[in-house]
Amino acid sequence: MERGGRTPVATEHSFDVTLEADVYKVRIRGSMDRVETDAQGRAYVVDFKTGKQAVTRGDVEHHPQLAVYQLAVREGAVDDVFDGGRPEPGGAELVQLRQGAAKKDGGDDVPKVQAQEPPDGEWVGQLLATAAGRVLDERFTPSTGDHCERCAFRGACSARAEGRHVVE
Ligand code: SF4
Predict the structure, then answer these.
(1) Would you kindly state where each structural domain of the chain is located, as residue ranges?
(2) Crossing angle of helices 64-74/123-137, nearest 10°?
(3) Distance 62 CA to ligand 1 centre (A)
(4) Exposure winner among 12, 24, 76, 118, fewest CB in 10 A?
(5) Which of 136, 122, 1, 142 has the alpha carbon at shortest distance from 67?
(6) Which helix (H) or strand (E) holds 70?
(7) Which residue's C-alpha comes closest to atom 6 of ligand 1?
(8) Is ligand 1 within 6 A of the CB of residue 159?
């Protein structure tokens, strides 16, 4: 498969880093499905998805999971597979294994790929800081959105009309 000139350096790569997010330090532990390197020596993270639902083009630009992977790269998450060096993040992508690509990208014979550019701006740090603040303050107010469509708790969720009667 053509990988845009990138070569694989690791699969199922575990990492454990601490990110600065505003006044918080946020520890992130996880596993990157695949890590590649590009011609400039940057690290590129690939995440395989097996669901039927793809994110929209706009959402992939601000996809939190991909963005956190890229921040983690910046904080040393892949140093051990780059001979101890600290590569710059060069982007990340979702590979939708159960969905075919657009015709111009190869059609149904290849999976749909949704790529995110290298991190830009402070929005991921702010997202992490908000999440950390909520956990520490124990503020778990539900927030509605597209994600509700696949949520099993809709019928008992205080933020939804159909669930409000259960909790009020
Ligand atoms: S239904 Fe409620 S709990 Fe489920 S995703 Fe939506 S806001 Fe969150």
Answers:
(1) 7-137, 142-168
(2) 100
(3) 20
(4) 12
(5) 122
(6) helix 64-74
(7) 148
(8) yes
